[in-house]
């Protein structure tokens, strides 16, 4: 019992920290829009942040099934934006020999120089395309489709076990 409490408490703490990190840029823009970004009053800033936080909380209550959506978006979009596009951009940028000659930093020699670096980038692109986008996208879509009938706005009980419908009384 005590161990479960610690796990749930630490998980809730991580959720609050993640929420804070994700919303901080929104807070800065909102405070700048309200022209209170230079104030020292924490109370005033907290009150000003409520119009940012309340709609996000409301959306979280409406859509409790965000996990499957998040995994689907993550596997399909994050694979491209974090791994594939930067590696491909690096390979395209340094494909001409003049770009490699004028590079400010050169790849370390233990990586095989430019050829080794190009091969590593090609491996990362291929691996993430197959494993992250391919298998990850497939698994998250299968998970999404399996759970689609449990979704509902303002669900009273998200993914609760289904109860059998009442049987008609036989006389």
UniProtKB/TrEMBL annotation:
Species name: Trapa natans (Water chestnut)
Transmembrane spans: 12-30, 50-69, 76-95, 115-138
Cellular component per GO, a single term: membrane
A Pfam entry, by short name: Aa_trans
Keyword Transmembrane appears in the UniProt entry: yes
Domain Amino acid transporter transmembrane: 15-130
Name listed for the protein in its UniProt record: Amino acid transporter transmembrane domain-containing protein
Superkingdom as given in the UniProt entry: Eukaryota
One BP annotation, GO: amino acid transport
Keyword Transmembrane helix: yes
Keywords assigned by UniProt, alphabetized: Amino-acid transport, Membrane, Transmembrane, Transmembrane helix, Transport
Cited InterPro entries: AA_transpt_TM (IPR013057)
Subcellular location: Membrane
Main localization of the protein described in the UniProt heading: membrane
């Amino acid at each position: 019992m005590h161990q479960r409490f610690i796990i749930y408490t630490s998980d809730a703490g991580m959720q609050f920290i993640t929420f804070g990190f994700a919303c901080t840029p929104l807070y800065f823009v909102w405070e700048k829009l309200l022209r209170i970004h230079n104030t020292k009053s924490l109370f005033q800033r907290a009150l000003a942040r409520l119009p940012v936080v309340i709609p996000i909380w409301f959306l979280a209550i409406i859509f409790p099934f965000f996990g499957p959506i998040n995994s689907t978006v993550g596997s399909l979009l994050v694979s491209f934006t974090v791994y594939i596009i930067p590696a491909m951009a690096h390979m395209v940028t340094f494909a001409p020999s003049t770009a490699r000659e004028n590079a400010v930093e050169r790849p370390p020699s233990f990586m095989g120089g430019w050829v080794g670096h190009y091969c590593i980038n090609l491996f990362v692109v291929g691996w993430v395309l197959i494993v992250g986008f391919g298998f990850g996208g497939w698994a998250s879509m299968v998970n999404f489709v399996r759970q689609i009938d449990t979704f509902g706005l303002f669900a009273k009980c998200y993914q609760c076990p289904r109860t059998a419908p009442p049987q008609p009384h036989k006389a």
